Fold:
Amino acid sequence: MGERENISRREALKLGFACGAGLLAGGFDAFAADASPKTPVWVIHGSDKAALMRKAMETMQAEGGFGRSVKKLALKVNAAWARTPAEGANTDPELVAGFLKGCREFGVSEVSVPEFPCVPAREAFVMSGINAAVEGAGFKMQAIGERSKNFAPVSLKSARRLTKAEVVDDFLKADAVVNMPVCKNHRATGISCAMKNWMGAVRDRRWWHSHDLQQCVADFAGFLKPTWTIIDATRVMMTRGPQGPSDNMKTPNALILSKDQVAADAFAAIEFFGSIQEADYIVLAGEMGLGPTSLAKMDVRRLRA
Amino acid sequence: MKIRLPAGWPRLLVKLCALLLFLLLSLSGTLPLWLDSLLKGSSDGFSEPAQYMPGWFKGILPALSPFAVFGSVLSQRALVIGGAMALAGIALLVALWRGRLFCAWLCPLGTVAEFEARVFKKGLLKKQFPTLNGMIFWASVLGACLGLPIFLAFDPLSSFNRAPLLLHWPIALAALIPMAFILFVLLLGVLKPMLWCSRICPLGFLLGFARRLRQQALLLIKGKAPERDFVLESRRDLIKGVCLGLPLTVASEGILASELVDSGAPVLPPGAGNAVNFHAACTRCYACVAACPSKVLTVGLPDSLNVPAWFAPHLKPGKVACSETCNRCSQVCSPGAIKFTPLPEKRKLQIGLAQVDRKTCVAWSEGQVCMACDEYCPYHAIDSDTSADGVSRPVVNPDKCRGCGYCMISCPVAKPGPAISVKGVLNQRTLKG
Structure:
């Protein structure tokens, strides 16, 4: 009995010691991080886009794929502008092709690719090369416009500003949603990445512009949370976004992969633009508790493809 | 049993074939999306319609009218050498020997009128109808020389070319008025069979006149006096034409001069140059309106007394804009009113200039972070003026703005309309960068 008491006392002491040491060493942050595990963010480097996407698909599969018995998937690409893939205004078509091929291998039979482009779809979808990529994989793109019929009204509970929106219903009905934006400079919001990409899935995005755009972007991110976010950072427009063409291009040759779109955006902002302050909506999303915005709260895993 | 064919059936057969051919030609270029998807059996709503025929085919029919082509050349006061001139020249040469051969065998409007005449054998009008074609012809020539495009209202081939615009959606409503021309011809036919062709059509007059002129010239060469009837008749026509054309032209030119100062210039299709030339040269065949994929090119109701501008195509940005990657209108314009502008040149061409209304712009008036216009501008023509509290406010750079109208699409201000809007420029110019 006594012996046992002794042991437990010793254990208790040990624990206390460990905690104290931990607090001393890492400060309060480390303690908090211990309490909630860090959000994993994968960064896949490589110049071969097909290989990049394969690696991303492998990583996703190892992390549970899109979820169980997913048949219908909705993919949000960025195909908003009449720009060529090299100009980096839209998601790279090779990556889209690779993703859709991977979907087939995962057993996802139905992928819808709705997009509300900023210029006529016949220009944006074709020049971006994404329509060819989607058709090549045996799926169809869906051109959304203000008068499209498949918008569903939703109310955003946690929103500060954007309390109501009309969303393309594919994103609400699908078993899984994947957001595949391109990372680029954006003159209105600073940076355009994952959260900002949802503006191509709502009807009245113009309203956002006149009602605190940054807050609206953050609000919507609190509503629509994709299963996976895959950020195309193979080339990044550093100025003259979102449309370009820009004479200041970075070629990080990377994909950023995460289940948390706020973490993905924050990481991309820090990695390519220096800080999350470059885009207020990331800061706002962090304040609203939608996801981690500091590297300390992320578990960044770098892979090579 | 022997089938009885109508008299002159080979000619009728040729006419019918020509009618179908010209209908097909006038349909070329871009088919309306709905028709295209019907032909293909499916549509995603955004793929480009298949090009069954090159777009410039649409320019063939109006180019066969020397009346319209040379009228357009006269009123542009510039010699536009091109396919249209060649075709019109050939048509005129043929007429020197064969007169109104074209009317009898090929003219699609003539065919329509002739078939109508077979139904309404007797006209409602009992009295003689005066012959007006010579007067209209000379008034048109005079008008064209002075820059008033009277000929526009009377060219049968350009008019016929307008018909397929009916298939396009959304229909440019104002275009229906010039399109009603065909109806007007049919209506005249009810008064008297083929009244249009025999008494009014100035193209028919020109073709017939060309032949008679050659005959008289031959007489002169042989040292004989020309026929007295012809001389008298021609002189009468000429005097009547001047009497009709001169006051019309002078009046409208006077109004035109004052109008241009008052109202802003319209936004013209890229390659149109300036309003005066364009309005004079355009035959209103609406090939450009039909070809415009975004339908930003449209036809408006007359909004001023500036007669030469009536029913001319112009751009109406707002819901749609003029795409950076398109120059279709300049590909299909056969009289060259819209000069062919290759894409790299078109990208640099300023057709209008955007203006920000600082009273309604949310950045200027409310301090909102917007800059949507900047985001949508394909040419980076929106500069930013930063306010004291760090909000970017749009300022249009006149050396970069092309006037495409994408800023208007993007503007979140719904009432009283976009806070940024495009006005036409007096002269389209090529920008440096």
Summary: The first helix of chain B runs from residue 9 to 27. The interface with chain A takes residues 44-48, 293-294, 320-321, 323-325, 362, 366, 368-372, 374-378, 380, 384, 392, 406, 410-414 of chain B (CB under 8 Å). The first strand of chain B starts at residue 297 and ends at 299. Chain B has a mean pLDDT of 85.
